[in-house]
């Protein structure tokens, strides 16, 4: 899971791609747990996943109406189809990905 910049996010949306964008802040303990969950998920599914430190991109919080971190955007064909804040478990995320992105 690579850190993305604004150009990569724009390109992702403009190419009508599908995948996940994970927003976090480094000092957030819940974000650290969510990051580990997404690392497991990354090995289970063939879905593009990018992550962004929201401290560096506060304008995206307004643009995507992000209320808190961790935040995971599910994007299908360049459109946000769901936003989640409670990652719950790896099986939960896996099922959500299968449901929304397959």
Topology:
Elements lengths: L1 E2 L2 H9 L4 E6 L4 H16 L3 E6 L4 H6 L7 E6 L2 E6 L5 H12 L1
Parallel strand pairs: 1-3, 2-3
Antiparallel strand pairs: 2-4, 4-5
- What is the N-to-C succession of helices and strands? EHEHEHEEH
Class based on secondary structure composition and strand pairing: alpha/beta
Radius of gyration: 12 Å
- From the N-terminal CA to the C-terminal CA, the straight-line distance is 19 Å
Helical content, roughly?
Answer: 40-55%
Give me the number of helical elements. Answer: 4
Low-confidence stretches: none
- Beta fraction of the residues? 25-35%
Count of extended strands: 5
Average pLDDT, to the nearest integer? 95
Q: Record the strand order, biggest sheet.
A: 1-3-2-4-5
Given the C-alpha coordinates, what overall shape results?
A: globular
Largest sheet: 5 strands, mixed
Structural account:
The protein is globular, with a radius of gyration of 12 Å. With 102 residues, the protein is an alpha/beta fold. The model has no long low-confidence stretch (mean pLDDT 95). A five-stranded mixed sheet has the order 1-3-2-4-5, covered by helices on one side. It has helices at 6-14, 29-44, 58-63, 90-101, and strands spanning 2-3, 19-24, 48-53, 71-76, 79-84.
């Amino acid at each position: 899971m690579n850190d993305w910049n604004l150009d990569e996010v724009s390109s992702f949306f403009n190419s009508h791609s599908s995948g996940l964008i994970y927003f976090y802040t480094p000092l957030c303990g819940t974000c650290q747990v969510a990051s580990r969950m997404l690392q497991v998920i990354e090995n289970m599914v063939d879905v593009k996943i990018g992550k962004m430190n929201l401290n560096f991109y506060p304008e995206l919080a307004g643009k995507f109406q992000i209320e808190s971190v961790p935040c995971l955007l599910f994007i299908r064909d360049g459109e946000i189809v769901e936003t989640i804040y409670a990652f719950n478990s790896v099986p939960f995320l896996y099922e959500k990905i299968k449901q929304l992105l397959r």
